[in-house]
Amino acid sequence: MKGFPIRRASDEVHERIDALREYFGRDLVIVGHHYQCDDVVAHVDRVGDSLELARMMDSIEARHVIFCGVHFMAESAALLARPGQRVYLPAPDASCVMSEMTPAALLEKVFDRVSAEGRRVLPLAYVNTSLAVKAVVGRHGGAVCTSANADRIMRWALENGDAVFFLPDRNLGINTAERLGLSESARALVNIRRDGEQAFLPDGVRLLLWPGCCAVHACFRPELAEAARRKDPGARILVHPECSPAMVRTSDGAGSTSYLIREAESARPGSVLYIGTESNLVHRLMVRHAGRVRIEPLTESTCSNMLKVDAESLLRTLEGIRRGDAADVRVDGAMTAPARASLQRMLDYCAR
Ligand code: SF4
Description:
Blueprint: H1 11-24, E1 28-33, H2 38-41, E2 46-48, H3 50-56, E3 64-68, H4 71-80, E4 86-88, H5 104-114, E5 121-126, H6 131-139, E6 143-145, H7 150-160, E7 163-167, H8 170-180, E8 187-189, H9 193-196, E9 207-209, H10 215-218, H11 222-231, E10 236-239, H12 245-250, E11 253-254, H13 257-266, E12 272-276, H14 279-288, E13 294-297, H15 311-323, H16 333-351
The protein binds iron/sulfur cluster (SF4).
Iron/sulfur cluster binds next to loops.
């Protein structure tokens, strides 16, 4: 457990959360991402990955929705919320480092340059992007995707455009392209330096990639898989596709958070799994399957932004809602229609 922070608020904090939950009854729902710590997950009504959480909004009728995750997730929830429904993020400064790697204004400039020669370029944004970026993508006919549906949505985009502009995670872009059999010569990283003034779409390229990545997943390296196999011959190595292509190639399987959870559930009794993703999820799986399957973290890697939400900030949010002064996540009206269009394209396509 070295390097893995266990968080536990006082009993009093948990009791006050429970009391406020009772006070609100069905008027309030708490949802949370799988990367949240146990102290928070203990209070959520629904837990899921990015795709599951986006889909859940449709079925939530409560007036107040507390979203335990990072800012882009709460923004997407606010975008999909019903009229009058309010979404709160317990730690408003819980950002996502990857999403910040694509400022919307820069994306707009780069997109104009790469599509200047008249080829139809379809932007495809990983869900880990700001609402402003989703709006740019929606305005240009593109869609959002998650790690759970990147294969399907990228195939759709390749069939409907001359080229696909994937952002912000180059690792997910390359790993998805490899699954679809898109050759290396048909892929290129876009040059975003100097305000994107040198950005262009090279001849023959069908997949242009933004040079972003997730620091939490970048730390999983092939050497860790080799060390795990030396220690536990026969162990399976499973990783998230935000890991580097080299790491994914070395692994026995790569997929979204929901894929990793399913693999742990269906693993043979007595088997050993090393999982390369955020530590809070891995440790929860270790506990859930203890005695049946041995689960180990490939190495410890926590998302410091996800950890900004804790039981104390959850309690403060509940108290603020009760007083009537909790700040909810607001969506800029001008961005609503195009951002919703990019998200809706994904939800509609996945519903088929
Ligand atoms: S784990 Fe990576 S992609 Fe996910 S919220 Fe944290 S920084 Fe962003």
